[in-house]
Design goal:
Layout lengths: L1 E4 L6 H14 L4 E5 L6 H5 L8 E4 L2 E5 L2 H7 L2 H13 L4 H7 L5 H16 L4 E5 L3 H33 L13 H21 L6 E6 L3 H16 L4 E9 L6 H21 L3 E6 L8 H12 L14 E6 L2 E7 L8 E6 L2 E6 L2 E6 L2 H4 L1 E9 L2 E8 L21
Parallel strand pairs: 1-5, 1-6, 2-4, 2-5, 6-7, 7-8
Antiparallel strand pairs: 3-4, 9-10, 10-15, 11-12, 12-13, 14-15
Length: 405
Amino acid sequence: MIIYTGKGGVGKTSVAAATALRSARRGYRTIVMSTDSAHSLSDSFEIQLSGRIKRIEENLDGIEVDVLYELEHRWKEIQKYLSDFLAAVGVEGVAAKEMAIWPGMDLMSALFYLWDFQRSNAYDVIIIDTAPTADTLRLLSFPEISNWYFDKLYRAFRNLLKIARVTVGKVMKTPLPSEAVLNDIDELKERMRAVREILTNPDITSVRLVVNPEKMVINETKRAFTYLCLYDLTVECLVVNKILPECNEVYFRQKLEEQRCYMDLINEAFSPLKILKAEQMPTELVGIKALEALGDMLFGDEDPTAIYSREKPMEIFEENGTETLSLKLPFSTKEQVELYKVEDSLIIEVGAYRRSITLPYSLINSEADRAEFRDGRLLVRFRRAVQNGGGEGDGRDGRECEENQ
């Protein structure tokens, strides 16, 4: 499974389509899936795709995830309850259909396709064309975040609902969720856990960042790299797209000089990550012929599905008698990171993003003693909690980690 992501306009869709085409022509059963609500995969292939899987050519299928289609076919019990609930409060027709799309449904629909494909073994290769960076981070972090809500809040909600059915439920005009609806939600929870395992397995899933040789794009790509590592996703490759070819025209000289500087910055900043390169096409990149040419530039004679890195962003190991959690956080400094331990979880905040890492049993009763950065990785040291004191009452409001360089 290869996930392409990057800033809007860098050419993710074209690169994803070219990779899928080249994969299929090497004999792999391939599907390319767009999770961007502003789909353009159809334009790349010059074939109309939809929420149903469609054959593009031999060994190659395509789909553009459509949340309205998913609502009608995958979420029947939940959709029926939401429609009944909205009707009870006076919302019907098209408005009810639109409002029945609850937050996260588009993300879950896309993720469940990954679960379906993995379970059915219908494809050898899955290529995912994603939305711009921020939406992709929401998509890829969704299984872990939703799992937290299921574990912390849903259980209590279900217990309260049992009481509500035999009390206020008897006099309420608006319907309460049925057992069938709750069973659907239970199934969502289990599927999300399965999806999480798929996404964080570097033998199955990898992320490829698409970047252009421009300062703003490079900076956003650095941040995306950091946040993807925060959520334990393996970034295996960088694709530098839309490189201007060398020419002697006076008009382009300054742009080419600027581009050389940014290419040097990319090579220095992202090394030793595998870097694929493609030049700016002279015409608009649409159609099979154009995708073939892009595939040639990117991969040459290489297999486009080769795994360039299996490095796990997060690992736990013992060092000098101390348990250490190591998390890859490239382009971060200690000033940008906050971390603290709450019960069985280690909370890590980097910029606007937060991850709650459920600790293994061996570390639950340990205290996060200190943290440091080393070679682009955050190292959090744990020590056994001291009984009757040691770490109590230090006035840090539960923040038990100091960040030491």
